[in-house]
Amino acid sequence: MFEAVELGRELDKADFKAAEPALRTRLLQAQWALQREGVPLVIILAGAEAAGRAKVADRLDKWLDTRGMTTAAFWDETDEERQRPAHWRFWRRLPGRGEIALFFDGWYRRPLQGGTLGELEGADLERALHRNADLERTLAAEGTLVVKFWLHLTAEQQSRRLAKRRKKEQKASQAARRARRHAATALEAEPEAHYAALRETAEQTIRATDTGESPWYLIEAGDGRHRDLTLGQTLAAAMESTIEARAEQGAAGPAPVPHPAPEPAGKAPSLLDSVDLGERLAEADYREQLKARQRELHELAWAAWDAGRSLVAVFEGWDAAGKGSAIRRVIAAMDARLHRVISVAAPTDEEAAHHHLWRFWRQIPRDGYATLYDRSWYGRVLVERVEGFAAEADWRRAYAEINRFEEQLVEHGTVVAKFWLHISDEEQLRRFREREETPWKQHKITDEDWRNRERRDDYRRAVEEMVARTSTREAPWTLIPAEDKKVARIRVLDTLIQALKQALAD
Fold first, then answer.
1. What's the whole-model pTM score?
2. 261, pLDDT greater than 80
3. Residue 391: which CATH number?
């Protein structure tokens, strides 16, 4: 693979200076076009040690408009990062629409280093690479341009550069050396010893993740001027082709999406019909059970904190189904220092400028803590689908994106519990009218609630498909009968207790 960039190409200073002004103009024009179109750009710089990634980054800072442009090295993981799924640290640094993020290695740092040092092998390495390719497809599907560069050096070229670097460091003061170097891994500390293994891992990585949405570009890095000019020209071409593709797509209209499967004829029983809404619980029994369940959940929440097991609980359901009251009974059982409740509303301007999962990735709890969501990322396949806020292609794609998101939470050790609180059409109407007639409840009923009720059949179909497509072994849905709020609260507490018990027993 790398033979094509081991040709010893060089560029003299005069030729570089002659070509640089036109390239800078081209890059700036392409960058401004991406800004106008609202296209986020992620540039990944990977490569052999001493290949010049820092110099390339400095060059791009000079050539591009640095407003709306950030750079991240992802050297040492913080405690905060280690206590969340691996991709959390990348999601929170993703650029908004029209912005640029320059990542040193990015999400390839761990697979490259782990594969080279033997810390990731076989299926584990393949899984990490597959997850990276999934992430890039997810970003590309909502318009992010991901451009990946591998800066290549031969073993001989690397040895010469490292010798020069060591000579300079010997002359530098101790303080300057400390400031320059971070806590190096074994690969960074002894790159020459691991050159062959890195080359093999890099080839496997590139082959596994070189896709049409986000291809790899191999850059010969033996000569700095040739490296920088080639990379700049390649980046400009990638930006320009993206703008051209968007223009063509706009002229042709949106791409077609698969038609949904035909609905069964007649009044066939549905998934929600299987929820038994007839169960009732006497007040005295409810009080006794509530006290016992909350005491048990309190102990389990502290046990989870001690074991470093986080909890994500998602509450979805019909308007007036009792999501808020169920959440209050849950948090009443937990120490206030251990939990956080997030009520999800329409995205802010900043959130709307990113992928729809970005705002939820940022809110993932640290190990040992709990986050409860009143509404959640399922808004993409519920309200955004029904109300037309998301294109059909977008909400259909979201099922797989959500499943992968939750899979990463569970793989990290997070307990994921998802509840749909179900009530009948008649009970919802009764509760709506009660809210209108009760002064201290009137704030709970809005015109939007009534509009949503008029589309209950559409929402029901969306709920049925949501549960069918996203109830996985790792993160199953629990359908809660909420006709009697007391029953619903006890069922929610029981589910959380069992989920935490099982997690702590593993």
1. 0.89
2. no
3. 3.40.50.300
